[in-house]
């Protein structure tokens, strides 16, 4: 079940306990053990264990990164569609100038705050500052 705690800038970061608090520690502990094993019992099997753990860790990180990139692509599409409907014409014609990271940052802004925030984004304001400028946070409970 999705967490429905009201989101604000201070708590919008999503932590997946299975990934961040189980899988990552297991990968690092196993890597440490594999290095320790290689030092104390050098050999091809010990060296191969280090390689396998590195591959396992890369698989875990890449799976997370690929999911986040796919999510960002969907957010980019959703936000471009939303901006095309919400923004007034002078700003609407500049939607294509927004970067992917700016679109991802703007997803938390409600419709009535978007025109001013898009102007700030186009003026070069950082994504962190854009998020901090949002007054009424629009939550996103379906993130990976």
Explain how this protein is built:
This protein is an all-alpha fold and 144 residues long. It has helices at 17-40, 44-86, 89-92, 100-106, 114-122, 127-133. It has one domain (15-133). The chain starts with 16 loop residues before the first helix and ends in an 11-residue tail after the last helix. The model has no long low-confidence stretch (mean pLDDT 89).
Instruction: Tell me which oligomeric state these chains represent.
Output: single chain
Largest sheet: none
Global Rg = 21 Å
**What's the average pLDDT?**
89
- Domain unit count: 1
Number of strands: 0
- Taken from the alpha-carbon principal axes, the silhouette is elongated
Query: Which structural category fits the helices and strands?
Result: mainly alpha
Give the termini separation: 13 Å
Q: Per DSSP, what share of the residues sits in E-state strands of 2 or more residues?
A: under 5%
Give the helix tally.
Answer: 6
Structural topology:
Layout: H1 17-40, H2 44-86, H3 89-92, H4 100-106, H5 114-122, H6 127-133
In brief, what are we looking at here?
The chain has helices spanning 17-40, 44-86, 89-92, 100-106, 114-122, 127-133. By secondary structure, the protein is an all-alpha fold. α1 (17-40) runs antiparallel to α2, α2 (44-86) packs across α4 and α4 packs parallel to α6 (127-133).
Task: Throw out a few tags for this protein.
mainly alpha; elongated; 6 helices; 144 residues; single chain
